[in-house]
Amino acid sequence: MRENRLRTLWRNDQAAINGWLAIPNSFAAETMAHQGWDTLTIDLQHGVVDYQAMVTMLQAISTTPTVPIVRVPWLEPGIIMKTLDAGAYGVICPMVNTREDAQKFVAYTHYAPKGTRSFGPVRALLYGGADYPQHANDTIVRFAMIETAQALDNLDSILSVEGLDAVYIGPSDLSLSLGCRPVFDDVDAPVAQAIEHILERATAHGLKAGVHNGRTDVALARVAKGFRFVTVGSDARLLAAGSQDILKSMRAAPGAALGGGY
Amino acid sequence: MRENRLRTLWRNDQAAINGWLAIPNSFAAETMAHQGWDTLTIDLQHGVVDYQAMVTMLQAISTTPTVPIVRVPWLEPGIIMKTLDAGAYGVICPMVNTREDAQKFVAYTHYAPKGTRSFGPVRALLYGGADYPQHANDTIVRFAMIETAQALDNLDSILSVEGLDAVYIGPSDLSLSLGCRPVFDDVDAPVAQAIEHILERATAHGLKAGVHNGRTDVALARVAKGFRFVTVGSDARLLAAGSQDILKSMRAAPGAALGGGY
Amino acid sequence: MRENRLRTLWRNDQAAINGWLAIPNSFAAETMAHQGWDTLTIDLQHGVVDYQAMVTMLQAISTTPTVPIVRVPWLEPGIIMKTLDAGAYGVICPMVNTREDAQKFVAYTHYAPKGTRSFGPVRALLYGGADYPQHANDTIVRFAMIETAQALDNLDSILSVEGLDAVYIGPSDLSLSLGCRPVFDDVDAPVAQAIEHILERATAHGLKAGVHNGRTDVALARVAKGFRFVTVGSDARLLAAGSQDILKSMRAAPGAALGGGY
Amino acid sequence: MRENRLRTLWRNDQAAINGWLAIPNSFAAETMAHQGWDTLTIDLQHGVVDYQAMVTMLQAISTTPTVPIVRVPWLEPGIIMKTLDAGAYGVICPMVNTREDAQKFVAYTHYAPKGTRSFGPVRALLYGGADYPQHANDTIVRFAMIETAQALDNLDSILSVEGLDAVYIGPSDLSLSLGCRPVFDDVDAPVAQAIEHILERATAHGLKAGVHNGRTDVALARVAKGFRFVTVGSDARLLAAGSQDILKSMRAAPGAALGGGY
Amino acid sequence: MRENRLRTLWRNDQAAINGWLAIPNSFAAETMAHQGWDTLTIDLQHGVVDYQAMVTMLQAISTTPTVPIVRVPWLEPGIIMKTLDAGAYGVICPMVNTREDAQKFVAYTHYAPKGTRSFGPVRALLYGGADYPQHANDTIVRFAMIETAQALDNLDSILSVEGLDAVYIGPSDLSLSLGCRPVFDDVDAPVAQAIEHILERATAHGLKAGVHNGRTDVALARVAKGFRFVTVGSDARLLAAGSQDILKSMRAAPGAALGGGY
Amino acid sequence: MRENRLRTLWRNDQAAINGWLAIPNSFAAETMAHQGWDTLTIDLQHGVVDYQAMVTMLQAISTTPTVPIVRVPWLEPGIIMKTLDAGAYGVICPMVNTREDAQKFVAYTHYAPKGTRSFGPVRALLYGGADYPQHANDTIVRFAMIETAQALDNLDSILSVEGLDAVYIGPSDLSLSLGCRPVFDDVDAPVAQAIEHILERATAHGLKAGVHNGRTDVALARVAKGFRFVTVGSDARLLAAGSQDILKSMRAAPGAALGGGY
Q: What is d(CA B171, CA B177) in angstroms, rounded to the nearest whole number?
């Protein structure tokens, strides 16, 4: 089975730099994949993407060594299994708030006897190779999102579920749940403490920790603290931020024969 | 009929800042349109976009005041007329190399008696309004691309074709045609001279001039010289450049626990 | 945040005239939106529409002042939250049969602390504006469908769930559940009584009531009774009914040289 | 090969009632096809439809006895032949203005030795049957659009091209070309005369004549005059007209608690 | 309502030969449907297909007498009901492991009073006919997949749920669940015994039994034993196996001027 | 720039085994590409494929070492250049009947000064590499189809056009043009002679020859004669032939409890 380079990075105690895909298009995904991201996550939850668009994006990523990961919309078995059959090498599941949630997630993503994943890796065989059925359980990476006060309360009971590989922190949702402002980087103090706590407990349980960032300096600081999977921005944010950079620098030029925009 | 804000800018002797769309997706287009570009050009020629994707992109742009423009793949009547019927307020036609080319282009984009455009503005009526048929000829903007040595030879005979509104310069193709390197900004001397010459002749004929740029400083310099329609970059370049900025700044951080990429 | 014109109508004690979209296409949706419907509901339940088509339809509606509403396929958190992130300003949830159903629905559609909606309004920010996160809870409208005998039994316990804005009645399903013929307009007596009862109780709880109609006279009569959201027909029915009008009037013409159809 | 029911109607000297498809969607097309139109024309010229959407619409029509016809965007061999390979049983070609245009059109739509159509009827074999190659030349119907002053000047030389089956009149374009208002039904006098003239000459040459109408009374009157293929309206017009009927009758109701629309 | 030819075969005690569709494309589906399969199953679970692609595939199948069946991704009411509304005449539900699972499945697929299926058969009316609402309950076929050890334990309590029509065996999943190799045909002994047992119990309860096969000889042997619905292969396997046949026979030719492949 | 493995095979005097894609879907294409074809040709002419579907198919092929080739619909510059920009490494142009046709084809597919290809290899840069502009002229392969009596008459003047790399023979069209039956393999004598003649003249001019075949024995025999690019079958034929093999062998089984099909 094709190597999961994310696991290789982790074996070397290195963090993956993860890109984020919210645009439902294979050419955008292919363009992103050719830039050298370690991993790219197709966001089926908050991204404007559903299953069929995801398939073409997975194909586009498969033209490069970038590892394809998918954030599923919810802890629902139908779409989680379809995502794996389509060849995702990692799955991020939102809102894992209880031990039971974590157990379900682990079950849905392992073949029997470890779990209840149904057999039929139609595209995964093309991407992973003919021995995918033998190695999928150990190759795929499962991220549980810890992003609510409830999940914090249940943290150790979640993290001790066998078969979970990593946690992923969404600072926005975590902030909202703790009554703070929904931001990625400059989080309020209670959120900052919660993030440190999650990192510490995940590490203690032998799991990797990942986190969503807006800026590279924040991502680097979090890697330094021990995060081993850091997202920076997204395709849609690159379009918006890049456009604004251009437009601001143009419209700020003194005396240029330009309109004021709208 | 809905105002063409590009013409309004021009009446005020102001340049439009134009964005460029090569990704065939309406959410990417909508994201771009919300950033404040004066105009956005959907590129059916070198962009990864065909007619049906273009329609959804035009709809996405129509949620904002940004003016929708389309570069057609070639001087072919079928697609040019379909583009207008879909509601484009400007058309950029590549490779207008002779007076006959320019005459055809003008004919395809005007209703009789000025031209031979067939009648059926199905979506254009929604976007432009019920009086579109009466005003389309005067509202739509037609750009002829001047991008070959042959076009330079025929420049005045092209520019004097009645009904043409503007020229658009593709520095890459113009460079290739003149035996130079295909770049947008730091063009070789013969290309720089040709660009100045086109601008000067277009202005003399009462036409506006537009040009494709890679950087904002170049675009501003060209506005200062008299260009009134300047493209900077494209959606695909924003994804690539933005990703590389992130990845380079991350991987350049000394001592970070990161892999070297691939 | 962009105003929700449906709430404005309601503040003026006026009913919204709602159109219904079952065709999964953005041009059909745009054509409908340009006719002046107060609201348009994209039907993900019985319409031939899934998420990705819905996004392009929401974009098409966003070119007009018509308020975009979505009926979701079922009380499932994944698709409900995706629908809101895509910019729906109202959600109609089928088969809300118990207080627990209503509580879940309300939770899925409110950010913390009121609910458990996950944060990531990717397209909703474009449509609603940058302050969407602050105002979404109060701007979005939530309709619970009351359409079974079980829901009638639990009516007051459903209607008293805080955060619910309105009910929506599907006369067909309600009829089936009460053992009557599945029709929209000329419902059997038990259904007519149930509809009146729901309207009365919803009003008593301070909620608005909506209902699906086939004909305008029925819709007007229901508005007169107090309904404040009335659907008439659907895009697919307009195609069918309009075609049949043409074909019948043609084939009924005496002596016309026409075939008899098939 | 599957019968072309349009030819059968013509052998019985009966007119076909033709519906018109501008919405690029197979469910809309299937809904239309189930209403009993003799023929349905997918409009690749002014409709919002390209090739790939057309294929799914042809499949949808193929679920019924309605005969599938396509109006191509222009007299271009690539798309004309692709349309036939996809199973169209009739082709309407716009802007046939000269004898040479008509000859090209006839050539593109016949296999050798009659024409130059390339061989590869991939979907047409499924729809038409295994003997499609033997009978396609005689089964497919070719309509040349006569819609300009130039075409009127060349009328007899166009109509005498062997292999042409019918003409189709677009009153809008014909009106524009004659300096009149672009309407379908209540055309100006010069257009009315031109239409009668085309009908008379087509009939004299043994060709059938078709025409685009807005209303059924006009269509019936034209059948009575001898037209044997009459289009009434389109899918997009049914949506618009049907919506306006509902909205007007609702908003016109005295005292109804409705807003005034926008 | 249009006949369900699968039920007709069963009334004659004949087995249906079922094809399997994993490619999300209507032309592939139409090509398959024209070959004479009794039934074709669109696989939304392990196939690379979601709802919107499925609709176009159902339309393609509807151009032939082949009966359209859908395997849904999971026992989830939203997609099950959407599938029926789209015109599926049979539904295969994976992982029916308990009596409660079976009861839910039966409820989701019957209108009241038998079940809780919501009313709105938008495309099903086109395919099935205007009397679809009256006859759908008795016409549609429901297959519960028996594919785990748990389901074997609950077999009789599952099979005795009223309203279930048939079982379908996925030998791969059943094998995995029993600790055996995941294959279709040459199953390990415990799986072979389980398959016979399921067939025997289903027959005893008056249900039909179906099974997935890789080869025709196995399918025939299973028909001889009493299976009345046998799948052989899939569209994707036909592409893979057919390509390999060609490439192997070519590359095996002695002395041919061919490369060795990659 | 990424190697063109087709040219490598040719340098070794080896023939490429070419697969053919008529199904407009990226998963079907990816499945085909993983079987080991040397090259795969996406057929935009007779296949049910247009540009946008082609892009996703090219991406799918790019996940493997198979070389992507496209047959364009016609000798039209717009689509030919779009195809190259999308990353095709070979182009097959139908109906090259005259020296002028060949010259145009060569011009459209070379950058200046050799030709008139417009510059903007948006996706080709991703697939081919950053130095694509420098090497594209020499890396891409151009096939002119010789398939009419007219082309035979002009054979040497076509073959001597500098910049042409190969010819491709469509036996069906060639047969029709010579008044014979349209078949691939067991062609009539005049066609057989023409094929030999084309092979001989192409070889004499230093060009490679390719041909469409239905069976492997014919393809092998043609390789033995000197053809260096042989197509066998197509994806759609694999579906049809494979299905018929299954259905015939099933229905032929004596005494099986099967229906007779339809």
A: 10
How far CA E141 is from CA of B262, D227, E39, E226, in Å, comes to 52, 49, 12, 18
Phi and psi at D144, nearest 5°, equal -95, 130
Instruction: Round to whole Å and give the CA distance between F15 and F228.
Output: 4
Q: In chain C, how many H helices and how many E strands?
A: 13, 8
Distance from CA of C10 to the nearest CA of D (A): 10
* Number of C-beta neighbours around residue F99 at 10 A: 16
Structure tokens at D10: 């013509």
Euclidean distance between CA atoms A47 and D35, whole angstroms? 39
Establish whether this prediction's ipTM goes over 0.85: yes
- Provide the sign of the torsion angle of the four alpha carbons B18, B24, B27, B28, taken in this order: negative
For domain E5-250, give its CATH number from 3.20.20.60, 3.30.70.260, 3.30.360.20, 3.40.190.10. Answer: 3.20.20.60
Q: Domain coordinates of chain F in residue numbers?
A: 5-251
> Which residues in chain B touch residue D172, judged by CB atoms under 8 angstroms apart?
119-120
- Does the structure show a pLDDT above 80 at C30? yes
Taking CA–CA distances from B34, the nearest residue in chain C reads C126
F258: its two tokens: 């099967």
pLDDT of residue E233: 86
Which CATH number is correct for C5-244, 3.20.20.60, 3.40.1780.10, 3.30.450.20, 3.40.1360.10? 3.20.20.60
A131: DSSP letter: T
Could you confirm whether C212 is annotated as catalytic? Answer: no
* Rounded distance between C-alpha atoms, residue A104 and residue B235, angstroms: 40
> Which residues of chain F are within 8 Å of residue A61 when distances are taken between CB atoms?
none
pLDDT score of B159 more than 80: yes
Q: CB C205: neighbour CB atoms within 10 A?
A: 15
| CB proximity list for B38: less than 8 A, separation 6 or greater | A259, A261, B5, B6, B9, B16, B17, B18, B66, B67
Residue D175 has a pLDDT of: 95
- Count of Cβ atoms closer than 10 Å to residue D14 Cβ: 18
Average pLDDT, chain F: 97
CATH 3.50.50.60 fits B5-251, yes or no: no
What pLDDT, on the 0 to 100 scale, is given for residue F195?
A: 97
Angstroms from A171 CA to nearest CA on chain B: 20
Which residue out of E8, E52, E243 would a mutagenesis test of the F interface target, given it has the greatest number of F Cβ atoms within 10 Å?
E243
What is the pLDDT, as a whole number, of residue C262?
Answer: 75
**Choosing among B42, B48, B51, B83, which should be mutated to test the F contact, i.e. which has the most F CBs within 10 A?**
B48
From D46, D197, D205, D212, active-site residue: D46
Tell me the per-residue pLDDT of E121-179, one tens digit each, with 9 for 90 and over: 999 999 999 999 999 999 999 999 999 999 999 999 999 999 999 999 999 999 999 99
When pLDDT is averaged across residues E84-108 and rounded to a whole number, the result is 98
E216 touches chain F (CB under 8 A): yes
Q: How many CB atoms lie within 10 A of CB F138?
A: 12
A12 burial level (CB within 10 Å; 0-12, 13-18, 19+): exposed
* pLDDT score for D112: 92
What pLDDT, in 10s, does the model give residues B45-59?
A: 999 999 999 999 999
Res B106 pLDDT > 80: yes
Question: Which one is catalytic: E46, E135, E205, E212?
Answer: E46
| Residue A261: pLDDT over 90 | no
Q: Using an 8 Å Cβ cutoff, are D42 and D57 in contact?
A: yes
Whose structure tokens read 């003149």?
A: B178
Q: What is the pLDDT of residue E262?
A: 74
Rounded to two decimals, what is the model's pTM?
0.98
pLDDT in tens, F38-67: 999 999 999 999 999 999 999 999 999 999
